[in-house]
């Protein structure tokens, strides 16, 4: 029963997990004190703790510590300390919570309990998030890296993404979160996969990239437990507000307002929920939420709560009170370096000043909000500030409406060329509709993988694609990103019985948009070298230039890929070129005849399986493939039947295990992280 509960926790089903742990503890209690009993009590207490029910959590956790001390179960005793800290956070006793979590970390580290130390550092930054003190994140991030474990590095990646978000580096935050999603998928951790997806959706919504956000937006469902619903509500509200649908945003918000006591302690999402309720005219729910906020301990020093109260005061016409609350919230956010929530509070302040008729002050605040929202590329906030500017007759400085101009100059870049092998034969051997279908899927996947790895598609030319990595000149690991994109594209193409050859070269190039609105041009010998290498690559093979291989050889070795050296005479290249041939992991490049043996699915079913693993719903897949949702439902069911599996989690696991997303076999034994 305890293991069954753990599985439900890993899949964000707190409500179902709570059915198992009490039963497990009840069954073991007559047998006397034991490590298993202590662990069951700890996990039950942990669930109550993260659900913000301190009165239930504390007795369970104290009992777990007492029994663990009796039987010498130091791991349970040390781990329980972390969950005793959460009620302290709820009570606004942040310093005490931090010290208790630090104690858990120190004792775990001294005892060699690395998984518990990882969890303590993860929970430590959660304490700082609620405080809020994002300026304190870095200490835990550094210590997670120092543990030298894959899980520690993964958690560090998560907090680096969150830190970048609060610092206003939204594009960096999005890139790191995308990488985090890839790593969590490889580790087979559904909880962290969903968390990374939610963060991608939140940041993308602020940036105005709604298509990028949409696949990761999950409707809050209280039937799966109030805590899971609260976790999802912020992303849901932010996306639908950005999409201009206040009614749908409020539908999600109203679901969790049924328990405002729990919601108000989910502080980072609170302002967005209140904004959704007020935008949809749900004033009673908004009042309920505000009432719960103002009675919280430490209300007057908690900016998340202050801005919620400011919004209600503004909605009910009490503008002077709204001005003071919003200004106080903005100042507190600014003190701790939270640029995103600070900007949101300042927009509320600007609205309150406008409604109060304090036009000069409102104009100054609107101008500042416009500048800051453009500086961090937060299109969501820019639109809010622009609407206020129009309302008060403030003449706004123009914002660029065309694609930003990449400054022309010489930069060190990685250039990728990929081409489908046997394309000419396909054009005569396949019906036009099927050929178009395959090429369309190939181009969609190429666009997705290049974007996911921070690259830029230069052009598509039928069966070929050219992409550049580090066009901005600010990336360090662009060669690895290009290689990972190439491997993922090669493996996905194999699902459609398409074999591609890839050439990758690293070197200087002249990069820039030569005219406003034009594609980025990449000129120089590096581009020519990548193209020539692609021409020499065999089917399902990647050819790296000498400099490209030098930069990624350690990564290739760590991931188990074989690379062999070659010297090539290339057209247009003055001297023989050193190149490195990369096949599949530990194997020669796969052949087309082996594809059906590895993947007992039709071409369309393979494509659908990949999209399921990418986190898309059947409706989203149907939209992308221009098919009805019913047809996609049938494809998914056929996958289940042919593979002998029962749900989307198992299908995702099957895709991961076969490297279809460029990932290692999932490590399902990795410890669960709160």
Show the helix and strand layout.
Blueprint: H1 2-10, H2 14-28, H3 35-50, H4 54-71, H5 74-90, H6 94-110, H7 114-130, H8 137-146, H9 150-166, H10 170-187, H11 190-207, H12 210-213, H13 226-242, H14 246-257, H15 260-263, H16 270-279, H17 283-294, H18 303-315, H19 319-335, H20 339-355, H21 359-375, H22 379-392, E1 409-420, H23 423-429, H24 432-452, E2 455-461, E3 464-469, H25 478-494, E4 500-513, E5 520-523, H26 525-536, E6 541-545, H27 546-559, E7 561-568, E8 577-585, H28 595-598, H29 603-613, H30 618-625, H31 629-643, H32 648-657
Parallel strand pairs: 4-6
Antiparallel strand pairs: 1-3, 1-4, 2-3, 4-5, 6-8, 7-8
Can you tell me about this structure?
By secondary structure, the protein is an alpha+beta fold. The protein folds into four domains: 2-131, Tetratricopeptide repeat domain (Serine Threonine Protein Phosphatase 5, Tetratricopeptide repeat); 222-392, Tetratricopeptide repeat domain (Serine Threonine Protein Phosphatase 5, Tetratricopeptide repeat, Alpha Horseshoe), CATH 1.25.40.10; 409-595, Nucleotide cyclase, GGDEF domain (Alpha-Beta Plaits), CATH 3.30.70; 599-657, Winged helix-like DNA-binding domain superfamily/Winged helix DNA-binding domain (Arc Repressor Mutant, subunit A), CATH 1.10.10.10. It contains 32 helices and eight strands. The protein has helices spanning 2-10, 14-28, 35-50, 54-71, 74-90, 94-110, 114-130, 137-146, 150-166, 170-187, 190-207, 210-213, 226-242, 246-257, 260-263, 270-279, 283-294, 303-315, 319-335, 339-355, 359-375, 379-392, 423-429, 432-452, 478-494, 525-536, 546-559, 595-598, 603-613, 618-625, 629-643, 648-657, and strands spanning 409-420, 455-461, 464-469, 500-513, 520-523, 541-545, 561-568, 577-585. Strands 1, 2, 3, 4, 5, 6, 7 and 8 form an eight-stranded mixed beta sheet that branches. Strand 7 (561-568) and strand 8 form a beta hairpin. Helix 7 (114-130) runs antiparallel to helix 8 (137-146), helix 8 packs antiparallel against helix 9 (150-166) and helix 13 packs across helix 16. The chain is globular. The protein starts with a helix and ends in a 17-residue tail after the last helix. 50% of the residues are buried. The model is unreliable at 1-17, 398-406, 587-598 and 662-674 (pLDDT under 50).
């Amino acid at each position: 029963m305890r293991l069954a509960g753990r599985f439900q926790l890993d899949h964000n089903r707190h409500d179902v997990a709570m059915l198992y742990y009490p039963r497990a503890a009840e069954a073991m209690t007559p047998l006397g004190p034991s490590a298993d009993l202590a662990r069951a009590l700890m996990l039950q207490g942990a669930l109550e703790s993260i659900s913000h029910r301190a009165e239930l959590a504390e007795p369970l956790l104290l009992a777990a510590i007492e029994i663990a001390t009796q039987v010498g179960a130091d791991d349970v005793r040390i781990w329980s300390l972390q969950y005793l800290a959460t009620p302290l956070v709820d009570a606004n006793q942040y310093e005490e919570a931090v010290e208790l979590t630090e104690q858990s970390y120190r004792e775990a580290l001294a005892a060699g309990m690395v998984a518990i130390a990882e969890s303590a550092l993860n929970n430590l930054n959660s304490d700082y998030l609620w405080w809020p003190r994002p300026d304190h994140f870095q200490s835990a991030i550094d210590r997670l890296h120092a543990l030298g474990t894959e899980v520690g590095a993964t958690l560090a990646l998560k907090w680096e993404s969150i830190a970048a978000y609060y610092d206003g580096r939204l594009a960096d935050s999005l890139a790191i979160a995308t990488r985090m999603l890839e790593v969590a998928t490889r580790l087979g951790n559904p909880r962290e996969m969903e968390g990374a997806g939610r963060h991608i959706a939140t940041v993308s919504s602020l940036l105005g990239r709604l298509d990028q956000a949409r696949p990761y937006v999950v409707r809050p469902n209280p039937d799966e437990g109030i805590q899971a619903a609260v976790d999802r509500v912020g992303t849901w509200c932010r996306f639908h507000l950005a999409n201009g649908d206040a009614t749908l945003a409020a539908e999600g918000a109203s679901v969790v307002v049924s328990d405002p006591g729990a919601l108000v302690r989910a502080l980072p999402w609170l302002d967005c929920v209140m904004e959704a309720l007020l935008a949809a005219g749900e004033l009673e729910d908004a009042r309920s939420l505000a009432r719960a906020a103002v009675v919280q301990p430490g209300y007057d020093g908690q900016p998340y709560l202050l801005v919620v109260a400011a919004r209600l005061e503004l909605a009910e016409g009490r503008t002077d009170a709204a001005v003071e609350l919003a200004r106080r919230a903005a100042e507190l956010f600014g003190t701790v370096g939270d640029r995103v929530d600070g900007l949101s509070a300042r927009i509320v302040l600007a609205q309150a000043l406008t409604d109060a008729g304090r036009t000069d002050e409102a104009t100054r605040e609107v101008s500042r909000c416009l500048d800051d929202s453009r500086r961090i590329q937060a299109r969501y906030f820019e639109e809010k500030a622009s609407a206020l500017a129009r309302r008060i007759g403030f003449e706004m400085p123009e914002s660029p409406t065309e694609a930003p101009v990449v400054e022309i100059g010489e930069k060190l870049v990685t250039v990728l060329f990929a081409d489908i092998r046997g394309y000419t034969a396909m054009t005569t051997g396949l019906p036009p509709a099927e050929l178009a279908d395959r090429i369309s899927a190939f181009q969609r996947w190429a666009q997705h993988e290049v974007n996911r790895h921070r690259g830029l598609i230069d052009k598509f030319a039928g069966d070929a694609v050219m992409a550049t990595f580090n066009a901005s000149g600010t990336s360090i690991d662009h060669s690895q990103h290009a290689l990972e994109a190439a491997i993922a594209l090669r493996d996905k193409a194999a699902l459609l019985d398409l074999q591609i050859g890839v050439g990758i070269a690293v070197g200087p190039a002249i990069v820039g948009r030569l005219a406003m609105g034009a594609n980025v041009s990449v000129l120089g010998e590096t581009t020519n070298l990548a193209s020539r290498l692609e021409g020499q690559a065999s089917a399902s093979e990647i050819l790296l230039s000498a400099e490209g291989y030098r930069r990624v050889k350690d990564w290739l070795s760590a991931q188990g890929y074989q690379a062999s050296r070659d010297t090539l005479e290339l057209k247009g290249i003055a001297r023989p070129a050193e190149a490195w041939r990369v096949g599949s992991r530990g194997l020669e490049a796969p052949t087309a005849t082996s594809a059906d043996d590895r993947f007992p699915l039709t071409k369309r079913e393979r494509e659908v399986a990949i999209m399921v693993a990418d986190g898309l719903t059947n409706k989203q897949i149907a939209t992308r493939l221009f098919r009805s949702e019913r047809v996609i439902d049938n494809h998914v069911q056929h996958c289940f039947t042919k593979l002998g599996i029962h749900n989307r989690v198992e299908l995702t696991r099957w895709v991961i295990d076969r490297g279809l997303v460029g990932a290692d076999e999932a490590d399902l034994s990795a410890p669960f992280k709160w």
